[in-house]
Amino acid sequence: MSQSIQVGRSDYDRVMMPNYAPVQMIPVRGEGSRLWDQQGREYVDLAGGIAVNALGHAHPQLVEALTAQAGLLWHVSNILTNEPALRLAHKLAAATFADKVFFANSGAEANEAAFKLARRWAHNTHGADKHEIIACTNSFHGRTLFTVSVGGQPKYSQGFGPALQGITHVPYNDVDALRAAVSSRTCAVVIEPIQGEGGVIPADPAYLQAARELCDAHQALLVFDEVQSGMGRTGKLYAYMHGNVVPDILTTAKSLGGGFPIAAMLATETVASHLEVGTHGSTYGGNPLGCAVAERVLDIVNTPEVLAGVAEREQQLREGLMALATRYGVFTSVRGKGLLLGAVLSEAWQGRAKDIQATAERHGLLVLQAGPNVMRIAPSLVIPQADISEALARLDQALAELVG
C-alpha cells in the first residue's frame, strides 16, 4: 500500500517546476460548481478548470462512466483500437461536419496534429512550396514549439528559438489584412472563433466568411481551434454552428472530457486521408478511459435542454455583471458567447484583472483572467442558477473591498 504524506502549498515551491504560480489554497473536493479546500472552506467555481469542467465537479454520470470503464480496460495502445474510441468517433462525426477523428490528450496536441495535417495535405496535393500558415495575433493554440509559433503571443515563444518558419500573423477580425496575407503558398488559415486567452473576443461573422472564401480561392484549408469554445460552451455544440462557415479541420479538447484529459482533431475525408499510417500518432490518444468519459459528456451536453440552458445562464451572468459595472465602474462591457465570457476592465482598472481574481478568491469565488484587462469566466454548463446568484454576490463583496 502506498504511503500518504501530508502536503501543502509550500511543497509546490519545493518539488514542482516553477512554470506555474498557483494560488495558496489547495482544493481537495468538488461537487457541482462548488469546491472545498484543505481547511474545509467552500468556493463557487466560475473558472471551471479554465473552461474544462463542462458538467462541474464529480458529476455522477461521469463518475459512473469512468468507474465502469476502469473495471474493464484502461490502455491498449494504438496497435489495437477500442470500443469507447469508436463510439465517440462515430458520435462526433455524426454531430459535426467531420468524417474522421484523431484522438489526443490535450488541446496543444490536437492543434499540433491539425497543423501537421494541413502541411501534409498541402505537400501531397500541391507540393512543398505550399506550406505557409496564416494565424492571428494574440491567438493561443498551445505550448508545444509548433503551437506557440502559430499562436500570436510572442511571450510564449521567446527564448525557445529558433522560431519555426512559414508562419504569418495578421490582426484578428481584420479582413483586409487577411486578404493581403493569403496567397498560393498558404496551406492553412487558423482561427479561434472566440479568442480565449487573447481576451475573450468573438470573431466577426464577416471575418469568418472572408476566411472561408479566401481559403477556397487559394486552395487552402480553414482550421478552427475550438479547444476552448467547443463542446457546448457557446450554446451550440461548436461555435462554428452559430453561422454558416464550416472549417476543413476543427480541434476540440477542454470541455470534451469534462475534466478527463482528452482531445480530438476532426476533419473531412478529403483532408484526413493524408494522415497515412505512420505519419502521426499518440500513445495515449483515444484511450478507453478518456473516450468513455467523453462519450458520456457528449451525450449529456448535446441535448436541447443543456444547450438552451447555456443561453439562460449567459443572460443571468451578463445582467449581473453589468449591474456590478454600473455600481462600481470596474467593467465597461461583457463580451464572448454562452459561458465563455470576459468582463472588460474600465480605463481606471486597466491591468488589475489579477487583483480582482485574488480578491474574489478571498471571498470564496474562483474566476479567471484573459490578459491583464479582462476578467474571464467559464463555469460549468449546468451550474445551478442559485450558484450564479451566489457567485455574483461574492463578486459584489470583492469589488466593494477593492473599490474601498
TrEMBL record:
Main location: cytoplasm
Cofactor entry: pyridoxal 5'-phosphate
Keywords: Amino-acid biosynthesis, Aminotransferase, Arginine biosynthesis, Cytoplasm, Pyridoxal phosphate, Transferase
Entry keyword annotation includes Nucleotidyltransferase: no
GO BP: L-arginine biosynthetic process
Gene Ontology annotations for the cellular component aspect, listed alphabetically: cytoplasm
Listed Pfam families: Aminotran_3 (PF00202)
Bound cofactor: record note: Binds 1 pyridoxal phosphate per subunit.
One term of GO molecular function: N2-acetyl-L-ornithine:2-oxoglutarate 5-aminotransferase activity
Note: May also have succinyldiaminopimelate aminotransferase activity, thus carrying out the corresponding step in lysine biosynthesis.
PANTHER family: AMINOTRANSFERASE CLASS III, SUCCINYLORNITHINE TRANSAMINASE
Name of this chain's protein: Acetylornithine aminotransferase
